Amino acid sequence: MTSSMPRRGFLAALIAAGLSLYGCSRTEELKDLNGIDMSGTDIGRDFLLTGTDGRRHRLADFKGKAVLVFFGFTQCPDVCPTALFRAAEVKRLLGTDGDQLQVLFITVDPERDTPEVLKAYVSAFDPSFMGLYGDLDQTAKTAKDFKVYYAKVPTGASYTMDHSAITYVYDRSGRLRLGLRHTQTAEEYAADIRQVLALD
């Protein structure tokens, strides 16, 4: 998010509280997590968006890998680059298992994040990262399905975007397992994702 710290803290607390309600039923498969166990929730069951590879994608297209999903925009000054840099660091920390992780960055600013801009942005962090985009209606539907908050904020002659900063992690069967907070470290992300990779 790009607004003031008080609002950022309020929204982060709101998102975390909401996700905690959805993730209150922990499974026996994931233990001592740093993030939020979201196994069995109805959040983010699927999407239909265009990738920076030029093809339309659903979540099922990435089965066989753990999938990390983050919503943001390319002109984000701090939260989004931090999230993608951390994702690249997580891949490094996972070692050879890093090849089993697919990072997806869904833009909440499709008016400015053209396919070319989005591809250049995500690939700067790691060539395997994929950007996903839709039109305004598709973006709104996807964000609603994922319980993601975003809003356009005027800044003089232009605008920026406020948005929530939860990272979603799916297991290799395409089931949502984790919600990871923006305040967590790469090491904490990697520890939780190792558990997800170990699931059948």
TrEMBL record:
<feature type="domain" description="Thioredoxin">
    <location>
        <begin position="38"/>
        <end position="198"/>
    </location>
</feature>
<dbReference type="Pfam" id="PF02630">
    <property type="entry name" value="SCO1-SenC"/>
</dbReference>
<comment type="similarity">
    <text>Belongs to the SCO1/2 family.</text>
</comment>
<dbReference type="InterPro" id="IPR013766">
    <property type="entry name" value="Thioredoxin_domain"/>
</dbReference>
<keyword id="KW-0186">Copper</keyword>
<protein>
    <submittedName>
        <fullName>SCO family protein</fullName>
    </submittedName>
</protein>
<dbReference type="InterPro" id="IPR036249">
    <property type="entry name" value="Thioredoxin-like_sf"/>
</dbReference>
<dbReference type="InterPro" id="IPR003782">
    <property type="entry name" value="SCO1/SenC"/>
</dbReference>
